[in-house]
Amino acid sequence: MEDQLNLQKLVLDLFRNVSEPLSESDFPVFATSYAGNKDIFYEFEEKIGILPKGRIFSTFKREHMKEAIDIIELLTKTETNNLDPIMLKLRKKVNEELFVYATSVFFIQNPDLKIKLPLIEEVLPQKFCTGDVIRKAVKENEKAMSMIPIIIDVEYTSTPLEPEHALAYWREDIGLNAHHWHWHIVYPYEWPDGNKPKDRRGELFYYMHQQMIARYDCERLAVDLPRVVPLHDWDNFIPEGYAPHLNKEIANTIYCYRPSNMILNQVNIDELRQMYETIIQDLRSGFFIRNDDAKIPLDTERGIDIVGNTVEASNASANMDRYGSLHNNGHNAIARIHDPDGRFKLEDGVMADTATAMRDPIFYRWHKFIDNIFLQHKSRLTPYTREELMFEKVIIDSIYIQGKTSKATDKIETFWQESKLNLENGINFKNKVSVSVRYRHLQHEKFEWNIEVENKWNENEQGTVRIFMAPIYGEDGKELSPNEQRLLMIEMDKFEYTLRPGTNYISRRSDQSNVTIQTLKRFSELDKETKVTNEASCSCGLPDHLLVPRGKKDGMAFQTFVMITSAIEDRVKGKGQHCLDAASYCGVINDKYPDKKPMGFPFDRVINAADWSSFKTPNMGFGVIKICFEDIVKDSDLHDENDH
């Protein structure tokens, strides 16, 4: 236990001010313990330290990922009681962002070590706060004459002159971008040789990103902007520009901006088009082709997982030589659009980095294009039959929502809330006075789902309760058809419930949602822990404050949907011990995805019904709610915010 506590303390110390040079005098373990580990480090020494310090690390670049995998393999081969000196050596030798990424992957994938990682936004605040904010914080700290805490306000990176500015509150949300970074920590697309791919990771790559696009479309409709247009016509100019204003002062590294109306490099276009056309051609045939020319059927059960791993592409791709790496190469091409062949030695744009990519409007256009590939696969599958949707003798009689502050039922209020992010562990300040940034984010009142269900069996039945919602009207004000609306259905929760014979009244709090993260711990909290617990480092999940779309001042109509299926049929065999938060979007660490049904069920396939009444089965319930947005800042008393 003492060894684990020491390792936990070392991880926090090495992550603290990670962009600063390491002082060996602060770590006596380095001199006393490294000698016995030279052999294993020597095996990897020429493979690591390739990416220079200060540069942007990109998971979308295979040469960067190659070094990350070598580091993970080195840590994996090291005995637990020898990790300290190896970690110290890595911290001294490798790029700081690469160090944080590779060690985070290692500890996340090894939850038995019980290491809790600090918030990425505290470790690398330069990825979440603009350079102007960081510089102002440093200046205020330098001239501080007292210990009064310094608080700097964060501003968005554009002005209302830019139409996409209306969505800056969502795209530049710190918790949202941290979620995307953490998801790719849990599900890296490359892993050391001999390791098996995670259960349904290709399908989850599709589903998590599809849900982010659906949620973003809900936000766009809320501010009277049209839904995202896929980035498919690569020969034309890209109207959306983006200036991130992010930089790393220590290395003078700047995330490059993309002016409006730029066009992709022709070489990149040709490569992307070749990959896309090959994928679509084989997808339509119903088979992907392996290196040995064997055909892999894209069937109902495993097809989406194969397509996901191949489109990304991960180590589990059906055939990397044939299909390439469409998703990753697209990120790279967009991130390098300003200097495609590197002749000007400019750094990448934000699309190269999983911690910053979601800030850029083009991220959503690119991912809607990727999502449309998955939709083509799903459109080949037979729509669900009534029998596949039924849960015999289970009937939903009614559903409604009750807000904590709203007097009326079926109404959720949204508003702004301000939270703070501490900078002291990511920036090396001159004075010891506390320095934080204050940022504004969307928030909602707490609410409860109330579901009345009748179980006509004479014994208990185990049910899986699935909850979704979607806007009722499109940008033209017309009611969406079921098949249009299903693409906007955002998952709100999923849980098991024991249905007793007769009438059941189910109440479920919004803060219990299975898509949001609840267990975030800051540096200061981790520093105070004095004992090892069984908690794993669970940081993947949509931030709770983004669970509910913004809505409109006068109310925005959303269709709510509840479906109960048989939990006995839905369950998988797994231990389910680590990181159960946000399992719908993030799965379970080193275990099976906790639901046999296809992700997004029952909205993952085409719905031919003209209206919902034609689609509905007795175990489904529909409702209509209004989400009402108030353009004011409210304090935390209305919602117990885990202040970042």
TrEMBL record:
Q: Offer a single GO CC term for the protein.
A: extracellular region
Q: Name one GO molecular function term.
A: oxidoreductase activity
Chain ranges of the Tyrosinase copper-binding domain: 360-371
SUPFAM superfamilies for this protein = Di-copper centre-containing domain (SSF48056), E set domains (SSF81296), Hemocyanin, N-terminal domain (SSF48050)
The UniProt keyword set, sorted, is: Copper, Disulfide bond, Metal-binding, Secreted, Signal
| Keyword Cytoplasm among UniProt keywords | no
Location in the cell reads:
Secreted
What is the name listed in the Swiss-Prot or TrEMBL entry for this protein? PPO2
Instruction: Identify the Gene3D superfamilies for this entry.
Output: Di-copper center containing domain from catechol oxidase (1.10.1280.10), Hemocyanin, C-terminal domain (2.60.40.1520), Hemocyanin, N-terminal domain (1.20.1370.10)
Main location group: secreted
Q: Pfam families, alphabetically? A: Hemocyanin_C, Hemocyanin_M, Hemocyanin_N
Domain of life per record: Eukaryota
InterPro entries the record matches: Di-copper_centre_dom_sf, Hemocyanin/hexamerin, Hemocyanin/hexamerin_mid_dom, Hemocyanin_C, Hemocyanin_C_sf, Hemocyanin_N, Hemocyanin_N_sf, Ig_E-set
Q: Is GTP-binding tagged as a keyword?
A: no
